Amino acid sequence: MRLSPLYITVFLLFNCTWSKKTRIKGVQWWTLANTGQPSNDVYSPSAHLYSPALLPLTKKQRKLTTKNPGTILAIAKGAKMAVDECQHQFRNRRWNCPIEENGHGGSIFGKILEKGCRESAFIYALTSAAVAHSVARACAEGSIYTCTCDYNLKQPDGKDWEWGGCSDNAKFGHKFSRKFVDVIEKGRDFRYMMNLHNNEAGRRHVTTEMKQECKCHGMSGSCTIKTCWMRLPLFRAVGDLLKDRFDGASRVLPGNAGSMETEGNNGGGRRKRRKFTLLPANTNHKPPGKKDLVYFEDSPNFCEKDTSIGFIGTKGRECNATSLGIDGCDLMCCGRGYKSESYTVRERCSCTFHWCCQVKCKVCTRTKIRHTCL
Amino acid sequence: MDEDMLFGDLSDFGDIDENLLRAYLEGDEVNPELEELLQNYRHDNTPVITRVPFKELWENCITPTLSQTIENVIPLLLLCFVFKLVCSFSKSGSDDNDIPPWLIHFSSLMFGILALQLFFQRTLIYLLVCALIGYFVLVITNWRNRDYCGIVMALCIVGYLITCEFVLERTVWHSIRGAQIILSMKMIGIAFDLSNGTMLRFPNLFEYLGYAFCVGTVIFGPWISFHEYKNILNQHRRPLSFFWLWKVISSLLAAMLFVVCSTCIVNWLILDNYWKWFKAYRSAQSFRFSHYFISCLSQVTVVLSGLGATHNNDDVKWDIHVAKPYYIELPRSLVEVVTYWNLPMHYWLKTYIFKTTKPLGTFAAVLLTYVASSMLHGLNFQLAAVLLSLGFYTYIEYVFRNKLSKIFSACIQARSCKDCNHEYKHNNPYVIAANICFGILSVFHLAYLGLMFDSSPTEESGYSMHHTLDKWSALDFSSHWVALGTYIFHLLI
After folding, report:
1. CA A30/CA B451 separation, integer angstroms
2. Among A313, A331, A363, where does a domain finish?
3. What percent of chain B has pLDDT over 90?
4. Catalytic residue among B377, B422, B466, B480
5. What is the ipTM of this complex?
6. What is the pLDDT of residues A136-173, one digit of tens each?
7. GO CC terms for this protein (chain A) (predicted)?
8. Does residue A359 sit in the same domain as residue A239?
9. Chain A partners of B125 at a C-beta cutoff of 8 Å?
10. One domain, residues A305 and A321
């Protein structure tokens, strides 16, 4: 049976009203990124970092964080990391990942998330990756009590020098992020599939970049002692990878091939496997991989102020007059032109090294030119 | 907790309302081809190579490496120390009613077996069997004809090694190989000592096994002579002193430093996207540092158990050196590298192999020494290739530099010359420059030779011939060509 267009319309309408509320409530944890900044706001999360009941979390999230003491700081750190990384990756683009400072009641990334566009795909992937990364890191540092980090684990069959270190950190981070982040995606529309996919894609970049490395030590290259360690990727590396995926994100449509598969009766209970299918909008393209970002709406051009996505436009943005890329004035200002002004800076110059050990500099005044979009 | 969590497919989300999803997706026929296509999600990794900050290196590499190393070495060190205490009790005075020597040798054996059990578990049986076979051979040859004792023992050991190579599982064999080398050296050493008359009294079973499994040398070495081993009965002459403690602690700290350098720092300094020769140097250096780590650790164990000292009247000097990293990292020549790589082993090879084969001619003796050395390491193509290459390289280097030093009358031989009558001494700028150039050439050869000990996944079971040749051909066998070129040049001048 194919879904009739009418049914889809009704379905989506129903969803828009239903899911907006939950999503906006659900992603409030992002405001944890603001912890540590001085604020008089009574709703500021820093005030009640240690009283989970007041945190901007859903009931399930709250339960999860109380069950795993120590995670809330890691989440806050992760949220901050995600915001910083997002702004770093998009510093030269029209949409530069603006943050709504007084975002209580909504998401700090603003209304862009109400669109199923590339930018929101990136935000979802990045935040979920950040939680996984930050929780894994906190695990390794030993600040989360529930993730066991057993350095003594040995193989039961007597083969010693097996890796017994903190290999569980990444797993714990991944799992925690999945429980913590995905729990809010309770919608019934296509968008939640997209969000789930993007969340997972983000986390996957963290775990697949994580590598175990071992080395043998012994007489003449034999293997008497073996030491191993895990390497968590830099979050910048994850951000870079996700940015690549952002550029190559696939536009998808709800799949028409997915279905429930029923696996054989094993042990009485029927296990149902759910299948997601996100089909590429362009049938010549490959279906999106597990690490690819997906979106289903075109991004706005981000030129003018757009209240529906809460973006102020590129007016007043600095641009590079000589660049032909997206940070160049032509593209950044969407052809509206730009104004140039010169300004003076005082900086240290002609520094010399004096033995030993001083560096002496002069202070020079230089004139620089700044271009801003009209 | 399900293990599928990390890489399971998207379908195992816990919190999806199945009914809603079904309502949403229901009614479409399954397209098997499409299903398959969807299963094959792309797995691509674009490697991004950056240097991680030191703090991260500390957390993720240095700390686990150190903790794992310390945790696994501490029991061995305790055993060594307790063994020394036990030995000290034996002859605290010159009383006649002290502990009989056989009991000391027996406790040496027991401590050694305990240490082996810690590291190899049941695999230690192969070492025990080898030692017992060796004793049997000693008794037989001693009874029939003492002169052939050494040769027969050497042949038996080689036979045993080859058998193990084929019978044992590769990973298992690879893990005990280090201990087996030390054991073989001890056994062959005793046998040659007996056959050339250095050792007159035939060792009894307790002495023999105590020596073979002496706790201070059984895991990491170094090789010590039977004569030195007998000092366990004279521990009252080697009391616990500051210098003893200093030797232990300094060696231990050096060992820790080397293991951290080998596993973490070297790979951190030279990244994967560097020039291939830098990467070769990195692999080789990591291997060398790993070797220094083992050498220092062996120094710790041997000194801690009260061996490896020299007596100067009543003075005890804890002066054992297994490797001298300084002479290897900044080499004068490959000859020196080979010497300082493992001083006890060098001494062993010189005493038992080189001197025995000397009547066949120097070149043959050098070659046979390297052959013996690679036989000791088992039938490993990689090690054999490296050692034989080293054999030829050192020979070529030796004769070439000898000839040059004669022509220019300068101190540019492979070994630094003491009171030679060359016109240009070692402090002449040209001589210094020439020696530095030869040193750089040695570094180049070392990078090339050590490159394939690169901790690749096959490390645990030993490297294959394929791996070796792959690595060398990636560098176009350049070092071999250079060595050949040097030799031809040597023949021409």
Report:
1. 48
2. A313
3. 19
4. B377
5. 0.75
6. 878 766 677 777 544 444 333 333 333 434 455 777 78
7. extracellular space
8. no
9. none
10. no
B145: closest CA of chain A, how far (Å): 34
Instruction: Give the pair of three-digit tokens for residue B60.
Output: 């993720």
* Segment A29-55 mean pLDDT: 53
Residues 421-460 in B contacting A (C-alpha not used; CB under 8 Å) = 453, 455, 459-460
B312-349 pLDDT per residue, tens: 877 888 888 999 999 888 888 888 888 898 899 999 99
Position A113 pLDDT exceeds 60? yes
Mark which residues 12-41 of A lie under 8 Å from B by CB: none
Split into its structural domains, chain A has a count of 2
Q: What is the band of B423 on the pLDDT scale with cuts at 50, 70, 90?
A: confident
Assess whether A205 and A88 both reside in one domain. Answer: yes
CA distance A49 to chain B (A): 26
What is the torsion angle, in degrees rounded to the nearest 10, for the CA atoms of residue A363, residue A364, residue A365 and residue A366? -140
Average pLDDT, chain B: 81
pLDDT in tens, B424-455: 877 888 888 988 999 999 998 888 888 877 76
% pLDDT > 70, chain A: 65
Look up tokens 């529309």; give the residue. Answer: A189
Q: How far is CA B418 from the centre of its chain?
A: 30
Which residues 93-122 of B have a C-beta within 8 angstroms of A?
119, 121-122
> Same domain, yes or no, for A259 and A368?
no
B64/A230 CB distance under 8 A: yes
Q: Give me the residue from A171, A219, A256 closest to B182, CB to CB.
A: A219
User: Which among A283, A313, A343 is the end of a domain?
Assistant: A313
Residue A198: pLDDT above 70? yes
Rounded to whole angstroms, the Cα distance separating B369 from B358 reads 10
Examine the domain organization and report whether A34 and A91 are in the same domain: yes
Query: Which among A299, A354, A318, A312 has a CA at the least distance from the CA of A115?
Result: A299
Which residues, other chains included, contact B404 with Cβ-Cβ below 8 Å and sequence gap of 6+? B410, B412
Q: What is the CATH number of the domain that holds A357?
A: 3.30.2460.20
Closest alpha carbon to A94 in A323, A295, A373: A373
Contact at CB, B455 and A216, closer than 8 angstroms: yes
Query: Cα distance from B265 to chain A (closest Cα, Å)?
Result: 13
A346 vs B: CB within 8 A: no
Whether A180 and A85 map to the same domain: the answer is yes
**Is residue A304 located within the same domain as residue A323?**
no
Q: Which long-range contacts (CB under 8 A, 24 or more apart) does B348-351 make?
A: B348/B185, B348/B189, B348/B223, B349/B373, B351/B189, B351/B192
B377 is catalytic: yes
The residue range of the domain holding A263 is 5-313
